[in-house]
Known about the structure:
302 residues, globular
Amino acid sequence: MKDYSKYQGIFPAFYACYDKEGNLNGQAVRALAKYLLDKGVKGLYVGGSSGECIYQSVRERKETLENVMAEVGGKMTIIAHVACNNTADSRELAAHAESLGVDAIAAIPPIYFHLPPKGIAKYWNDISAAAPNTDFVIYNIPQLAGVALTVSLLQEMLKNPRVIGVKNSSMPVQDIQMWRDEGAVVFNGPDEQLLSGLAAGAIGGIGGTYAAMPELFLELLRCFRAGELEKGREIQNECCRIIYKMCSAQGNMYAVIKEIIRLQGGPDVGSVRAPLLALEEGDQPFVVQAHEMIQAAIGKYC
């Protein structure tokens, strides 16, 4: 039986890194990767929603992954999200990711046109075939993709030996239990329910806010593994309150998080790419409050 231990743990979803003109900043990519390596997380999920993948070109996505692998490849588990809204570009990114030696690739279903399950399976299998020696993770995020994974579709995909499981970002924790029952490895997606996802059988978590407060999510995972559930619930509740604060600003949550990382002494990775909203006048108090909440929680729990 295959050893999936390299997928057990906390995986921050990697943020898009830009310069002041909004162009991809390779040095910032490397700095953020090193910053997260030093925080002690298990690995990184590169090129997904937090990486603003739908707003980046194939070249930019390749360059991002190249810089991540140059900085932390072999030191962390790297999962590269390679889906584009056409098969050819997705296959190009999959082959490129395999050439760099990533641990796994991942893909959302095609968006906009709602394909039947047969079409989705063909899309995913075609992408997987372009990286024949690399694990494949299905990315289930129906609230954004507009398509939800089903048991029958997962059963069809598990016929592909490279498919190991699901990054599950749907809100029902029951989904994790269903995918686990089919023999899939499952990563919890919604940060607000990591503790519940772990209890339902998730092997670890991939989260868009983890990089803003990795210490808290690492301690939450430790509490779960140690059976310290009351403390784990307290940390989960505090993480949720911090996330709600992050979402209170007018600017996009990732713009808020990038500013928080700067306040924490981390690298400057720029803002977000339009049409996502950058921080607006009046947002700074929310950023500072979220930052202070994170520091207080780390001091209390970690």
